[in-house]
Amino acid sequence: MCGNVDGFCDKLTDVIRREHSRESLSDAFRILLNDPLHALDRREPMLIVVDALDESKTDVKSEFLELITDEFPELPEWIKILITSRPELQVRKKLQHLNPVEILPDDYHHKLDLEHFIHHCLPNMNQGNVSSLISKCEGSFLYAYYSVNALKKMDLGIEPNLSDYVPKGISGFYEKQFGRLKTGLQRSIPDTWSSVFKSFLNVVAASREPLPMKLLVSCMGFSLSSEEYVMRETIIGIMSEILPLYDDCLTVYHKSLWDWLTLDGYEEHAFVGDVANGTKRLWRACSNIYRGIDSLSSVLDFLISPEKKYALKNGGKYLLDVGVAEDFHWLVNVRLNFLKLKFFDSLNVRISGILKFCYVKCPDYHYWGNIHLHFFSQIMKKRRMEITENNREIYYIYLQSLANGYFDFVQRAIHCKNEARDILDKSNEIWVEEIGNDYNSNFKIISHTVMGCVQVPFKRYDAKALSPDNKLLAYINERTVEVFELPSLIMVFDLEISELRGPSRFLIFSPDSLYILWNSVRSCISIREQKEVPLIPHGPLDVHCCSFSSCGTKLVTCEKNLIKVWDVRKRSILVQVRTEIDVEYCMFSNCNSCILARSVMQIRAFDFNDIAILESTTLERIDLDKISCADTCLTNQDYYQIISPSYRVLFSYYAKFEIRHFHLPSGRIALIANQHCSKPFTWKDKKCVIFFISGLWALVYDFINNEVVQFFHINCLPNNTSVDYISKLGEMNLFVCLSHDQVFVLSLETPTETSVVRSVYTPDIRCYALSPENLYVACCDKNRSLEIKSVDNGKTLQTVELKQPPEACWWSELYLWVVCKGVVVKYPYNPTQTNVLGDELEDCDINFQSVLKFAEGVLVIQLSDNEEISLLKICNQMLYPQQIPKSNFNATSIAVSSDGCAILLYHKSSSDYQLWEIASENRWELRSTGRLKYPEDHVAWFCLTGTENSRSSIWVTYTFTSWQDPNEPLCISSIDFPSCKQVSWHELPLQHMITGVIYVDSNIVIIYKNRWIYFVNVSDGKIITSLDVGLIPGLRNVSSFYIASRSMLLLGGERDIIFFKIHNIESSLPSVTKE
User: Fold this and answer.
1) How many C-beta neighbours within 10 Å does residue 609 have?
2) φ and ψ at residue 905, rounded to 5 degrees
């Protein structure tokens, strides 16, 4: 399209740049085809051809058919569609409403095409025989193709007697071919021909794609020994007479042959294959290959072959069809899955559909192992929808996930971790290990399910809800409702919905937990009767949200900007009001006197001003300022109602968790949270809620005393897994609904050690400092807390309360220095002590507007709003003011050299820079001044390297045009001093929206972007390697470190610092100095 339709490429690029949902195939159709075409001016008609629709290899052909029927009519009028397919029943039904032109076998123009084809292939055939052959083709070009080829080979002359050589129709052609095979086998192996022939029919019928000959003979019971060589070759030769061999694989030349063998659209004949028997034979052959792979001393010794390739691609499907529970361990075999992903970029099996089968028939080992495959398949699907610059293979993501202990749902019982690490290390593959991932993993999974037993690749409609009594879970997926029992998560029933009501906006239970409503109030689902029943038949069909009163007699509904209150028994409207804005959420207060509503928030963070409280009888709005309360009037004895945004509210995660309370006119108190959280519950005699933050850390939050009282780390999942819903069940159980249709019930346990709790909810970490020996890292947060963490394991070893809010810190050989508002303090450092820091010592008073830089003993501060700066340096363990050059240069950012004897100043607006160096004990001089070669570039990061007389700088820049244009490339360059000569400049294969840059050495930097880190060579601008470290929010504008001597990466963000060990990196970075 980009090459053939003028302007299409530009319109496609514009559409892709904008934020879009990529959750469904229809979304992809709209983004990649429909919207760009509609954006073009009307033009001459163009034709889009979808050829051989019946040969689609997708397992769910109906998905593509639905796309054609639902979305293709929305294309511009000047776009014409031509779809060709065999007239399968499924295709006919789906496309009937489009009034397709069906080319019938006896259609005049179709016969004319056949006639042209035959005349071209057999120019000497007279018209009478051509007409006879056309008649025998019965409209099939396949028959015509093989017929003319046979006639050519027979060389029967110009006027052959076609009735002697050509069977009638394609079915007759197949019967003749397989009759020849039967006759050939009877002559060659008269004693065993019957069993060989039957097994051949069965295996070919079940194969569905070219079948390697070694695998085929194995399925028919022959060994690969030399004694049976002659017999094998004889049989293969006979078979190849009817089915061609390509690349040592027996090839079925058309799908219709499989249909014929299985009587799919054909009348009964003598050569019907038993698919079930063929599947069993194929699985046995594949399992033998699997055993051979598993017996290798190392998976690196594996050599691909046609039969091994076939087994890796298809073995899992045959295993699921056979359903032998004892063999399900092959689905979670790390070696096999590694090879599948390496050679096919896919696991080649649908896991979700068998989990309920596994739950009943398989031991926990297999069941939980298959869950990890389902998780990973969903992760792969999501990754493929993302636009990314990384080129790491998907098998690397799989192995690294297992090597980090992810998906170990039964806590080290599956033994995937060591196998994955062994493969990574033996292959010298670079991978990242998160240090300290096992802290506070004090939970046990007591039940689990996958919602949506009928899986589709792109779901458009799904919703979930818990019953008020916490005994049932309901889920809607496409047109099916599933109801599960809690906490066992055993399915109670499933029900097909009679009418699809658009994308799921809400799903709720009635207060008595006996009925379920979704998207409308016209009908509901009765739990007792397990069927749909009327509720308010004349009510609105399309409802955005609704809520019952506590007694169930009233119902509030919202249709965009229209709110109605209904009498459920009388099925009548009590009151209605039209609002100024659309409302996405409304609910009755527990006292039923008020209705709490929230406006549609679009793409922005949660705002308490979006909440509206209405009087339930009149729907008059209550002034929030009059009922909002900032006093500490909450108590542990009261029951509180809370409303919180759904997990879909973007950016709410980045705000500090906050709960506000409001005094309703009835005297009751309502709570409102700015992040998704559970309902209030009692934990250790305190009123609490649970919410999740990065890395699947669950925090038990005491909202009366505004403090976190407990942490739980769900460490068996990748840290970017999103939580859709959480709720407290009973005393110790927690219901958790995750993004990939996964539901867990966790049993929480109070940790025996409280010292290992990491600071996962520090509201604002202001600065980090690394100890001289790279053993410890100091973290100073806005709440005046200083924590010392071990680099080895991420544990918090010591906590110190600061007297003033910190602004910057740095670690010398003898002291940890902390710059606070108005004062600089230092702590004696002794790495041999349990508490490595001693008591606080005050060094000097200091006044400043902001700290520009504190590194290598050099402190640069901004004195006032006019950007005047001052410089101080640590000498003899004291901080002394420095004499700086007389200059009007107003720096906006600073870089300090590693020897602490030079600083590089940069001014953002002018793109000017200056280099200052120390000339004597406390006097600094201006050495160089210049301007970036491309002043329009924006500087993302820069640093100063080298020593006196040989200094250089590294710059990471980009040309910024618009936030809506993420495609601006990133550039890396270096400038030498004192010449100010730009010695290198390279455009990187990365877009400009990066998170940060980390200095490694004078020729290597690390760029962190989205969930990936890139090791970049400064001299040539090439990416050395890329690594997936997961999505870690809040990493901007805070320090990160790379410790080359230990291959450790420390990513410090506004909430926490994450420790990574990079394995096998040494061979790729030979130039890195081991500090």
Assistant:
1) 8
2) -105, 140
User: Residues 657-683: what's their mean pLDDT?
Assistant: 89
Burial class, 326, CB count within 10 angstroms (exposed 0-12 / middle 13-18 / buried 19+): exposed
Q: Which domain holds residue 190?
A: 169-278
Q: Of 402, 420, 435, at which residue does a domain stop?
A: 435
Comparing C-alpha atoms, which of 473, 1026, 447, 497 is closest to residue 746? 447
Q: Is residue 39 situated within a structural domain? A: yes
Q: What is the DSSP letter of 721?
A: P
Rg of the chain taking only CA atoms, in angstroms? 35
What is the token pair recorded at 958? 């980009």
Cβ neighbours of residue 404 under 8 Å, at least 6 residues apart? 417, 432, 433, 434, 437
Q: How many residues in total does the chain contain?
A: 1075
Between the alpha carbon of residue 553 and those of residues 82, 225, 569, 589, 664, the distances in Å are 55, 79, 7, 14, 21
For residue 218, the 8-state DSSP code is H
Taking the C-alpha atoms of residue 728 and residue 688, their distance in angstroms, rounded to an integer, is 10
The answer to whether residue 962 scores a pLDDT higher than 60 is no
- How many domains would you assign to the chain? 5
The residue written with tokens 């928030």 in the block is 601
Question: Could you give the CA distance from residue 730 to residue 465 in angstroms, rounded to a whole number?
Answer: 17
CB count, 10 Å around CB of 696? 21
Let me know if residue 377 belongs to a domain: yes
Residue predicted with more confidence, 736 or 392: 736
Q: Which residue has the tokens 């690294």?
A: 400
User: Which residue's entry shows tokens 């009692």?
Assistant: 682
Tokens of 954: 């590294």
Distances (CA, A) of 887 to 38, 893, 935: 58, 16, 21
pLDDT single digits (tens) 130-148: 888 887 776 777 778 877 8
The whole-number pLDDT of residue 761 equals 52
318 touches 283 (CB < 8 A): yes
Helix segments in 672-781, DSSP class H: none
Same domain, 147 and 174: no
Where among 435, 454, 489 does a domain terminate?
A: 435
Is 19 part of a structural domain of the chain? yes
| Residue 851 identity | V
Using a 10 angstrom Cβ sphere, with 0-12 exposed, 13-18 middle and 19 or more buried, the burial of residue 245 is middle
Where is pLDDT greater, at 132 or 917? 917
State yes or no: pLDDT of 686 exceeds 70: yes
The CA-based diameter of the chain, rounded to the nearest angstrom, is 112
Structure-block tokens of residue 416: 């995937």
Residue 560 corresponds to which tokens in the numbers above?
């965009």
Whole-model pTM? 0.73
Tokens of 115: 């006639």
Q: Is 441 or 797 the better-scoring residue by pLDDT?
A: 797
Q: Kindly report the number of other CB atoms within 10 A of residue 395's CB atom.
A: 19
The pLDDT mean for the chain works out to 82
Between CA 311 and CA 314 the distance in angstroms is 5
Query: Considering the domain boundaries, does residue 552 fall inside one?
Result: no
Q: How, if at all, do strands 431-435 and 443-450 pair?
A: unpaired
Consecutive H or E run containing 26? helix 25-29
